[in-house]
Write a structure and sequence with these properties.
A: about 300 residues; alpha/beta; B: two-stranded antiparallel ribbon; about 70% helix
């Protein structure tokens, strides 16, 4: 059980202080959290709830005021551990004068990849995030969505075991959001552990196995998405092709049998589904170039270096 | 580490301010022979001192600006956090940034050294020849230097227009390269523009070789003694690059520039501070803590044919390296516990 744990936080606190070391805000208050291998874990919460602070502590960018953090069995600042993590920041922080190709080569070299391997991985990821057409333009002039794609590609450059995504769909259009969610599904199937935050609850609901809800630095709820959302005292039937009379008769029968009022409605598809179907009809939806990335994801950086 | 160094250099010289600092320094150095009116036989010295001064002052501004852009701004912008989210330790990050800043300063230094040599050669020198005795300038070399710098801008613009190459990078490297090329070319003609290798003072000194005629000899009429003084300036720029990098881990560019300027002032005044000062006094402390910039500023030693020995340059280099190590250690300690968000 122990070796299945990828992220472990025990009584973690983070207090931001001013120049005189006086406490300004307590961003995280005694957080306990465990993420297991192969999970897609969602960290939810309103603005200022401590989601990004928690993620930055996991990456060793912020120091916890108290408590213990273990990531992949080591302290967050361990560079060997960081080599196994992919990180997409909340805002895509890129060198504005570099092109996407140069950006990916830069990040690849931070992982100690050989030039040939870095070049190959860069081309695969540029194809995956659909940026080959803009691969030689400076990222400083990119739209937020395009910069987000570059950020996503850099997070995957090392075929990580643990992928940390801070607001991954921020700035993306509905197609991009769908692609990111598809990507998370694919990565999870290949055994990658994903920790993500999002304001868009539907996104989290779509992809996460478990979620934790933070509010003002405190853990309010944690568990499997299905368990948290299940209404145990209600049952819902969905029948297709009933006429109005048949539906009314069925409702009356249930009400008579159960002795309670029954709610009846007509389910509708989500706006996202409708949008994607509409765009797909125009042929704008594209298949993710997953195949090369999945091959890459199954390789480890060490084995590549030997190649 | 190499990737961070390379990216730091590329990003820094892409900034318009880096290229403007270099162009201004080179043009100011090259124009000294044009605007100097008091000869008294020391035109070359004036050009040399001006060139080295520009090298120090503009180099300091470039080092602080580059450190501010590549460390303080990256921390504020979040690209530092993105890099440190990868398997890069904070010590490696700080050290790589210093190497990157020093790399930019080193390219600037090459251009400025060449411009100083060009400027000194172009200044009026007293020449004794069969046909001419008196002061003679070298307008050809000066024009080559000026047009070389401006031509580099044209080439950079063309590269940007036709091949979409980065203008800032091409211009920064091009201006430095143009001055080095002028220095290299100047060995093929004499002060009077004659394409004959033996000329002027050198010709006077080795008239026998003049008689060799026809044989193509390469003899740049340059003051090689400037190189040692310029190397000392490079050492002090390395020290200030380390100080600026260390400061930039906690402070913005303006504050870092103020502190560096103060350290330069105190460092230049170090001898005065140290004079008869007790080790445990404030003056003694200032003299002991701040790098003694006087060790690196030996323009006067070149006057009247003086030379700076190679041993001294090496010892000064070791002193500079020690200062760099101290500043970088302080920078790493300051950066170690800094929250990056």
């Amino acid at each position: 059980m122990e070796n299945r744990t990828v992220i472990e936080l025990r009584a973690v606190k983070k207090t931001f202080r001013d120049f005189w070391y006086r406490p300004v805000v307590e961003a995280v208050k005694g957080l306990d959290l465990t993420v297991h291998r192969g999970e897609v874990f969602g960290l939810l919460g309103p603005n200022g709830s401590g989601k990004s602070t928690t993620i930055k502590m996991l990456l060793g960018l912020l120091h916890p005021t108290a408590g213990e953090i273990r990531v992949l069995g080591a302290p967050p600042r361990d560079t060997q551990t960081k080599a196994r993590i992919g990180y997409l920041p909340e805002v895509s922080q890129l060198h504005p004068f570099l092109t996407p190709r140069e950006t990916l080569m830069y990040y690849a070299s931070l992982f100690g990849m050989t030039h040939a391997v870095a070049r190959q991985r860069t081309e695969e990821l540029l194809g995956m995030v659909d940026l080959r057409h803009a691969a030689d333009r400076a990222v400083g002039r990119f739209s937020k969505g395009m910069a987000r794609r570059v950020g996503l590609a850099q997070a995957l450059i090392n075929a990580p075991e643990l992928l940390v995504l801070d607001e991954p769909t921020s700035g993306l259009d509905p197609i991009g959001c769908r692609e990111v969610k598809d990507l998370v599904h694919v990565l999870a199937k290949s055994g990658v552990t994903v920790l993500m935050t999002s304001h868009l609850l539907a996104d989290v609901e779509d992809v996460c196995d478990r979620v934790a809800i933070l509010d003002r630095g405190e853990l309010r709820a944690e568990g499997r998405v299905g368990d948290l959302l299940r209404k145990s005292d209600a049952v819902r039937f969905q029948v297709e092709g009933l006429s109005e009379q048949e539906a009314s008769a069925l409702r009356n029968a249930i009400e008579t049998r159960a002795g309670r009022a029954v709610q009846q409605d007509y389910p509708s598809m989500s706006l996202e589904t409708f949008f994607l179907q509409t765009v797909a009809a125009d042929g704008r939806m594209r298949e993710f170039e997953m195949a090369p990335f999945l091959k890459a994801a199954k390789r480890t950086p060490d084995r590549e270096s030997d190649a | 580490m190499g990737a961070i160094v390379y990216t730091t250099v590329t990003e820094a010289i892409q900034q318009p301010i880096a290229f403007l600092i270099q162009l201004t320094a080179v043009l100011m150095t090259l124009l000294v022979p044009v605007f100097q009116f008091h000869r008294f036989g020391e035109d070359g010295r004036l050009a040399r001192d001006s060139g080295l001064s520009c090298m120090l002052i503009f180099g300091l501004a470039l080092a602080v600006g580059t450190a501010g852009h590549s460390v303080a701004d990256e921390i504020a912008r979040g690209t530092a956090a993105a890099a440190l989210g990868k398997p890069v330790s904070r010590v490696t990050f700080v050290f790589s940034k210093w190497l990157g800043v020093f790399g930019v300063v080193a390219v600037f230094w090459c251009g400025m050294l060449a411009a100083t040599l060009v400027s000194e050669r172009s200044s009026a020198h007293f020449v004794t020849q069969e046909q001419f005795v008196g002061y003679a300038t070298d307008p050809l070399t000066l024009c080559l230097g000026l047009f070389g710098a401006l031509g580099a801008l044209g080439v950079a613009a063309a590269r940007h227009y036709f091949w979409r190459r980065r203008f800032g990078v091409s211009a920064f490297l091009g201006v430095a390269l143009s001055q080095v090329l002028v220095v290299a070319l100047s060995g093929f003609y004499n002060r009077f523009g004659e394409f004959f290798p033996m000329h002027s003072e050198a010709a006077c000194a080795c008239g026998g070789e003049h008689a060799m005629g026809g044989a193509l000899l390469y003899h740049p009429e340059l003051n090689g003694r400037v190189v040692a003084a310029a190397l000392l300036v490079l050492w002090v720029l390395a020290v200030f690059a380390a100080l600026a990098t260390a400061l930039a881990t906690r402070l913005q560019t303006g504050a870092a520039l103020s502190i560096c300027a103060s350290v330069l002032f105190l460092g230049l005044a170090g001898d005065s501070f140290a004079m008869n000062a007790s080790v445990f006094s404030l003056r003694g402390l200032v003299a002991g803590v701040f790098p003694d910039v006087q060790h690196f500023w030996l323009c006067d030693a070149l006057a009247h044919g003086g030379r700076i020995g190679g041993g001294y340059v090496a010892e000064a280099g070791l002193y500079a390296l020690t200062c760099c190590a101290l500043f970088l250690t302080a920078g790493c300690l300051a950066f170690r516990e800094r929250d990056l968000g």
